[in-house]
Specification:
By secondary structure, this protein is mainly alpha-helical. The protein has helices at about 10-20, 25-35, 40-70, 75-80, 85-125, 130-135, 140-160, 160-190, 195-200, 210-225, 230-235, 245-275, 275-280, 285-300, 305-340, 340-360, 370, 380-410, 410-420, 425-450. α1 crosses α8 (about 160-190) and α18 (about 380-410) packs antiparallel against α20. The longest helix is centred in the N-terminal third of the chain and has 41 residues, at about 85-125. It starts with 10 loop residues before the first helix and ends in a 6-residue tail after the last helix. Bound molecules: tryptophan.
């Protein structure tokens, strides 16, 4: 017999945990970069549209599937729609494993940078030699060590369960993350030339708008909101009957978007305020986040001694609240399938994922055979291959499946009762899930087939 299903200890518990899942490297790293590549202004508007008409409706759909079924992604679809739909849940589980494998590696870099900054804050900043970061990437033992450290951190939280682990961590981590980010943006605003950066991000410029931005925004909204693989189904399955799903989903979407926009504002300010920076980081946000920022903190920004380690602590916190949601999808799949104890499932899935992570960690130059794996054109290495597979195929497939399932197959009457929305809002939601979301994701898949890359 398995234990009765766990539930969040409070309404805010779900919102914080789901927001913690959503806010991650995607917000701090990918979003500013995509906004920068799209020259700011018009991209924000497109992103807001994608989040409102694609992200929010699909988020509501995923949460309601989970809460209705009271089962994790792997079983919720089968329970509500029959065996064939169960495949959708298992594709999601696969996607969670794939993303977790490489996400843990990148998350590990934040621990490395945190350690480095603590050293600099105590002993004084020493500018790293050129190529130091690539050397770190190609250092197999170090990559394995930091990936293992982050995997351990993730499993340690998951080990403590839904409300005692996930909820408790998010309860203090999310407010802390907000406070730090706001403080950082506030400090950056005092730099000369800061306002030019803010203006560049916030002034809509129709001339620079590219239609492809619509698809990029949709793909980013999906990844950033943790949609497409059943993470929200799983978290939603721990939601109590009396909580309002649309309200919770709206709060999560707003929190996630605010963090993305704050992170982009910070990056734009720095890029405009620091001469020469824009040229140096072009094309690489990895460089921006892990190499350029520490230097900026210690040489240009008042209070950098404190802010630099604080910033990487923030990245690590944002990352761990995301990795635990990916891990929870796997754990819940195992416990819901075999009824085994949660602590055993945590260890088993943690070890299994680490096998994948190790391959990704060694694919950045350490082991040539892994660094040269090329399944997709132009994507060499296990890490890029996994990212490409998930962002371009697995997440869009999961998203289109969920919206078609919820919009057309799962009784509209049932969701009407569950969501308890006033009629006009319900109809907007229903048709967004029925038509807007599948159409947008379909366009994205076509673009992928034609060679576009959203990873
Ligand atoms: N949303 C997280 C980010 O922005 C990543 C993430 C966590 C995720 N769980 C997910 C992405 C589930 C897709 C699906 O970094």
């Amino acid at each position: 017999m398995s234990a009765p299903r766990a539930h969040w200890g409070s309404r805010i518990g779900f919102v914080l945990a789901a927001a913690g899942s959503a806010v991650g490297l995607g917000n701090l790293w990918k979003f500013p970069y995509i906004a920068w590549n799209n020259q700011g202004g018009s991209f924000l508007i497109v992103y807001f549209l994608a989040v409102t008409f694609l992200g929010l409706p699909v988020m509501i759909a995923e949460i309601s599937v989970g809460r209705r079924a009271q089962l994790s992604a792997a079983h919720a679809y089968a329970a509500l729609g029959g065996r064939a739909w169960g495949v959708l849940g298992w594709v999601g589980v696969l996607a969670a494993g794939v993303i977790q494998s490489y996400y843990l590696v990148i998350a590990g870099w934040s621990l490395h940078s945190l350690g480095e900054c603590l050293g600099w804050s105590v002993g004084g900043y020493v500018s790293p030699v050129d190529g130091a970061f690539s050397a770190f990437l190609a250092n197999g033992p170090l990559q394995l060590a930091f990936t293992a450290a982050f995997s351990f951190l993730t499993s340690a939280v998951l080990f403590r369960g839904v409300s005692g682990g996930i909820e408790l961590l998010n309860r203090w981590a999310m407010p802390l993350l907000f406070a730090l980010l706001i403080y950082l943006v506030g400090t950056a605003l005092t730099l000369d030339g800061a306002l030019a950066g803010v203006a560049a991000l916030w002034t809509p410029q129709i001339q620079t708008f590219r239609p492809a931005a619509l698809l990029e925004a949709s793909g980013q909204a999906f990844f950033s909101l943790s949609l497409g693989l059943g993470a929200m189904v799983t978290y939603g399955s721990y939601l109590k009957r009396e909580d309002s799903i649309p309200r919770a989903a709206l709060a999560v979407v707003i929190l996630d978007t605010v963090v993305a926009v704050l992170a982009a504002t910070l990056m734009f300010i720095l890029l405009y305020a620091i001469p020469g920076l824009a040229e140096r980081v072009s094309g690489s946000t990895v460089g921006m986040l892990f190499v350029t920022l520490p230097e900026l903190f210690y040489t240009k920004i008042p209070g950098g001694i404190v802010l630099a380690p604080a910033f990487f602590a923030l990245v690590a916190i944002a990352a761990v609240t995301s990795t635990i949601s990916l891990g929870e999808v796997l754990i819940a799949a195992v416990t819901d399938t075999w009824g085994i104890r949660r602590d055993y499932a945590t260890v088993a899935t943690g070890v299994a994922v680490f096998a994948g992570s190790a391959l990704a960690a060694l694919s950045l130059g350490a082991v040539p055979a892994l660094s040269e794996v090329a399944v997709f054109a132009g994507k060499a290495g296990v890490l890029s291959t996994l990212d490409h597979l998930a962002s371009n195929y697995l997440l869009p497939l999961g998203g289109i499946g969920t919206s078609i399932f919820v919009g057309w197959f799962w009784a509209a009457k049932d969701s009407r009762i569950q969501l308890a929305l006033p009629s006009p809002l319900f109809l907007i939601w229903l048709w967004s899930v029925r038509v807007v979301a599948p159409a947008a994701i379909f366009a994205l898949l076509i673009a992928v087939a034609l060679g576009k890359d959203f990873s």
